[in-house]
Amino acid sequence: MSGTKPRATETVAYSDHEVITPDPAPLRQALVPAGLYDADPIARAEKALGALSQDFLIWMSDDCAHLDTARAEIRISGMTEATRDRLLRAVEDVKGNAPMLGFPEAAPVADSLGRLIEHTPDMTRIPAELIDQHVNAIRAIVREHDRKDILTIASVLTTRLRQVTEDFLRHENRARPEYLEAMASPPLASDDQGQR
Predict the structure, then answer these.
(1) Which residues 6+ apart lie within 8 Å of 46 measured at CB?
(2) Is the CB of residue 161 less than 8 Å from the CB of residue 168?
(3) How far out from the chain centre does Cα 84 lie?
(4) DSSP-assigned letters across all residues of 43-101
(5) Could you count the other beta carbons within 10 Å of the beta carbon of residue 59?
(6) If exposure means fewest CB atoms within 10 Å of the residue's CB, which of 93, 98, 150, 193 is most exposed?
(7) Which of 21, 22, 38, 20 is nearest to 30 (CA)?
(8) C-beta separation of 182 from 195 below 8 A
């Protein structure tokens, strides 16, 4: 403790209450360890993020593994409500986590797969190969993320998968022109949820 003498606690009495003002020095030292706020807060945040970033690939790989497991369940059990929901949850995890974990190139592919799942009226008609292509593209983008040409590769994959997905959705929804129009419109909210 420094050589300053602690200030006495002050109490002011009013007719219906008292205000007690303690000496702030001992409290500050108890709550904020010396030196904690000496460093630049941005530097501290970057250091903490740097320590966490080593785990980002592991976390993203885990999301990819869940996606792969959900796809495998569909191959084994077929497209049921339960397997569809598991696949959609895994897709949403990838779509939401990829940008935060430093893999933003994977999110548009996950978005395309999500659209395929959400907007196909008869989920049993979704080609397994189209699901496989999406899942394989996401896994490849994450695996090859450190390549210098990953942006180009991801862009080509995303563009092609979106094109095939949109063509399939137009064909599957051809008897529902009002749904096709609503599906093609930009979302009102940021979560891109279509109406069924």
Answers:
(1) none
(2) no
(3) 19
(4) HHHHHHHHHHHHHHHHHHHHHHHHHHHHHHHHHHH-S-HHHHHHHHHHHHHHHHHHHHT
(5) 15
(6) 193
(7) 22
(8) yes
Amino acid at 75: R
Dihedral (Cα; 138, 143, 147, 153), 10-degree rounding: -20
Q: Which two tokens stand for residue 1?
A: 């403790």
pLDDT of residue 188: 46
Instruction: Quote the CA–CA distance of 117 and 88 in Å, as a whole number.
Output: 7
Cut 0.90: pTM above it: no
* Coil, strand or helix at 27: helix
Nearest to 81 by CA among 35, 22, 123, 48: 123
The DSSP bridge partners found for residue 12 are 19
Quote the tokens at residue 91: 């897709």
pLDDT tens-digit series, residues 39-94: 677 777 777 767 777 788 899 999 999 999 999 999 999 999 999 999 999 999 99
Query: Of 57, 66, 56, 65, which is closest to residue 143 (Cα–Cα)?
Result: 57
Backbone angles phi, psi at 6, to 5 degrees: -60, 140
Amino acid, res. 56: F
